Amino acid sequence: MSYETIEVKRVSPHIGALIGGIDLSRTLSNRQVEELHDALDQHLVLFFRDQDLDYDSAKQFGRHFGKLAIHPNTPGPEGHPEILPIHTDANSKLINGERWHSDVSCNEEPSYASILHLKTVPDIGGDTIFASQYAAYDALSPRLKVYLDQLTALHDGGPSYRSSNAKRGIAETGKTYPSAVHPVVRTHPKTGRKALFVNAGFTTRINGLPDREGKALLTFLTEHAARPDFQTRFQWQSGSVAVWDNRFTQHLAIWDYHPQTRSGFRVTVKGDRPI
Ligand code: SIN
Questions:
Q1: Which atom of ligand 1 is nearest to the CA of 114?
Q2: pLDDT exceeds 90 at position 229
């Protein structure tokens, strides 16, 4: 695919491209937006350097991909409910995204895209790893693909959000968390391409199987989904932005920089019910 308004450089065989020649804080032309959509479809995660977004311009940029979502567990700052602060420092007890996951896959309509902008980064470390779930599905044997095509799984926000709230000392009183049943194999609504759609962060059960068989299958699939040859790893700089497609990827944030600070915010775009 060729691009006229953005520079697109692949960063690994299955996933990821570095995008240049665009200032995300400015009003974007229709053609730029179209090409960003094409690049996201093609590469699944887009990386940008030297950007300077505030909450308003990040939300404006996010709306080019759809309606913005409010996080089910973490309220945004005053006046910006759609902003998810991503902040770790010497006093943090945990980080966001320390298990492989696809953002908010526990929703009936999980997030389509996420846009993360970091302002403060550690001297070294704090990378995010992304894995293509198209590549994960493609690498399975034909027989297993046929079997998985018929299965559904439960994605439950409760265990993950309850555990983060306990570590952060946030009271549980009155809190409820989303959960949803999704196909184990997710299909792109336009291209028909298939991807694995289970993750260690939210998927708690494969439906319709005896407990031990379901657990063993889920363990195999979540390990397979994160194989190094399906991955790319992004080294953040201050001002970097990553935009990823949650439908066909999953990601993991690495906390190897304690006691340094890593700080920024995320905007999340609503998605559709997986098919
Ligand atoms: C997230 O899971 O959205 C956080 C990713 C990161 O901080 O690298």
A1: 3
A2: yes
